[in-house]
From TrEMBL:
PANTHER family: DEHYDROGENASE_REDUCTASE SDR FAMILY MEMBER 13, PHOSPHATIDYLINOSITOL-GLYCAN BIOSYNTHESIS CLASS F PROTEIN-RELATED. InterPro entries: NAD(P)-bd_dom_sf, SDR_fam. Belongs to the short-chain dehydrogenases/reductases (SDR) family. The keyword rRNA-binding does not apply. Pfam families: adh_short. GO terms for molecular function: oxidoreductase activity. The keyword Transmembrane does not apply. Keywords: Oxidoreductase. This is DHR13 reductase.
Length: 240
């Protein structure tokens, strides 16, 4: 109603539930024959555990998007040229990933912040490995730092921190429209296909931190993510 565009459709999707992700993908593929652009934008920074037993932040920010992308990948390929944009963050610079403990909440006083940083490192590595696996398919993908944006991402900020943090957000952070610009750039800009798998900020190509350029870590993250979301069994064989 707000857009005035009758072609905008709402479909229920809860990234904190792998069951919901699968249901959404099934409904979408049944109803929509075309898919040229997938923007994985949702994100949270909060404590808690999902119904699937994973950290809420890590599942919503990475595992849910990973499963969704995999379930829609065949449609993206059949509609190529197409693109996947994964909204990451400069916070990936503080990420620490161990594939054998993936999806478990970190320990420590700043566990929620560390979990968020870990998920953003996973976003950048996801785009990198996805690009490697999609070479020659005309499906390209990009990781994006949108800037520091004043959105509801910060609604879970601890009560004691809000009086300090929220005024800074209102004064210095971008609004949602400004924060969308780099995602839109990677979604629509011509002649960036050769940069598939790379990291963008301020509508420009930038180099992420060294761990986000680690191809072995990207592959290990991919394989662990496949197991955790049930795309392959414990031995690496495809799940039914």
């Amino acid at each position: 109603q707000e857009t005035g565009n009758a072609e905008v459709l709402f479909m229920q999707l809860d990234l904190a539930s792998l069951r919901s992700v699968r249901a959404f993908a099934s409904t979408f593929l049944r109803q929509e024959p075309h898919l040229h652009l997938l923007i994985n934008n949702a994100g949270v920074s909060a404590g808690g555990t999902t119904e699937d037993g994973f950290s809420l932040t890590f599942q919503v920010n990475h595992l849910g998007h990973f499963l969704l992308t995999q379930l829609l990948l065949e449609r993206l390929q059949s509609c190529a040229p197409s693109r996947v944009v994964i909204v990451a963050s400069r916070a990936h610079c503080a990420g620490r990933l161990r594939p054998d403990t993936l999806g478990r909440p970190p320990s420590g006083l700043l566990s929620t912040f560390q979990d968020y940083c870990d998920s953003k490192l996973a976003n950048v590595l996801h785009a990198r490995e996805l690009a490697t696996r999609l070479q020659g398919t005309q499906v390209t993908c990009y990781a994006v730092h949108p800037g520091f944006v004043n959105t509801e991402l910060f609604r879970h900020t601890p009560l004691w921190l809000k009086p300090l943090f929220l005024p800074l957000a209102w004064l210095f952070f971008l609004d949602a429209a400004e924060g969308a610009q780099t995602s839109l750039h990677c979604a629509m800009q011509e002649d960036i296909e050769s940069f598939s798998g790379r990291y963008f900020a301020d509508c420009r190509l930038q180099e992420p931190w060294p761990p986000a350029r680690d191809d072995r870590l990207a592959q290990a993250l991919w394989e662990a993510s496949e197991r955790l979301v049930g795309l392959v069994g414990p031995e690496g064989s495809p799940s039914p």
